[in-house]
Automatic annotation (TrEMBL):
Superkingdom of this protein's organism: Eukaryota
Annotated protein name in UniProt: F-box domain-containing protein
Organism: Vanilla planifolia (Vanilla)
Record domain At1g61320/AtMIF1 LRR: where: 118-484
Domain (F-box) ranges: 35-70
Source species taxonomy: Eukaryota, Viridiplantae, Streptophyta, Embryophyta, Tracheophyta
Amino acid sequence: MKSKRRWDSAAAASSSSLNPSLSLLPSVGGDVDRLTELPDVLRLYILSLLPIKSAIRTSVLSSRWRNMWRLRWPQPSLLDISAPSSISQSEFVTAVDDFLRRRGCARLDYLQVVFSPSSRHMTDLKRWLDYAASCSVSDLNLDLSPVPPSADTSGVSRRRRSRAASVAAPALDFNCESSSLTRLNLRGFHLTSLPPSFKKLAHSLEILSLCEIYLSYASLRRILSNCPFLRSLTIRRCPDLKKVIVPSSALRLTRLTVVDCRKASEISVSSLGLLSFRFSGALLKNYHIESGAALEDMYISSGGAVPAMPRGDWVKPFGELANLKILTLCSLALEYIAALSSRADSGFRWLPKLVELQLLMLMMAQSNLSDIYSFFKYCPCPRLEKLFIELPVSACDPSMEMYLEVPMEDPPGIGFDNLRILKLNGFKGHRNEVQLAGDLLKKSCILEHLVAVIPMGNAGENFESTANMQKYLSMQLHLLPKASSKAHIIVTECDDLQFRPTHSQV
């Protein structure tokens, strides 16, 4: 009892030096767990010892732990340094320097810098990066994108716009020697060279995102070779990148996303643990995915059609996809799969675990409808639960014209025993669209929802209003025979968030 009274008196004596908004004594009342009973001071001390991800996760323990991780440092640990357009760059730099000076060298969890520096302010930017390193920054978002020109560039060619953007983008010898850096987002500059210290900073990196960064594939490979703990790599609109080569030293890479790198012609991944592969852009000449059998999530969209089939097997590098659960394919991919389906070594033969499929259709001519049927015929998906079909935006009905003289493929003979959600986005009631919807309705015995989203504000020539078009298409779909008596047919102009594919954003 004496020791307890001594502890209480010491706690009361020290309470005056603490933040008055924080409680030193345990909470009273209610039947709560021991973690919730801890005083605020002790909980803040525990949070100060944890890395940021673990500290954030404590928010789920109870309402008294929620968001308390934000108070674990006396100074703000999440900083957003974004240059406003209302002041000059010199004034902005002075204000940032003054704030960082007053803040001191306190722990920094997250730093975002959005700034388009002129050449005279590049040294200021490097000083801020040195400051972030001295504060052991964990998450760094650096955006140096040039301010877009105010003049109208609608008549300027894409090549000239790209060249102008390259000239306007600053060059930076990136360096941030923070040994605790785990997440790095870079955007809008030329990555000129990699200093020797980069190997030290990259060693702890887990998530890397490069957007509109000018670098060569050799530089990217050097970066990746120094990132043994990298789990996620995202590359978007990097105009100079011709290849994406992931070396085997990136042992822990599980997620790779490559979007709109117009010069990229090859992707090679030697890592054996890749679970997610997402690609959108021009047709690649070569794929090499070492661990295709381990993939669980895949997105492939190659934009427009090409005059002829490329040489080689476009889908063969993926081999068996026995673990694939979520898949998105464009109409060009479906065309290749249909052309190679008669061959025993063409790949995409069996998808036993696939639960969600999205098809991105650039056209819906009879040949495209045949490609869809061929896919289901040669690539059975016994566990498929969700099917999303993105229909073309063109208002004309391609079934009225014969684009390709090909025999029509019959609807798949197999049923969709687990399909619960079917969504047709951009549904206009064209003949091939209605035929596809009818064939799927007849094959889906437990279907719960057929959602047809009509184009917003586009009633077409045959309807006075969108409402009339919606009523007509709803009647047209309700007249189709269906295998599931519980199937709820919804025709709407609003794209409900309830029925969104996993790959709605890539």
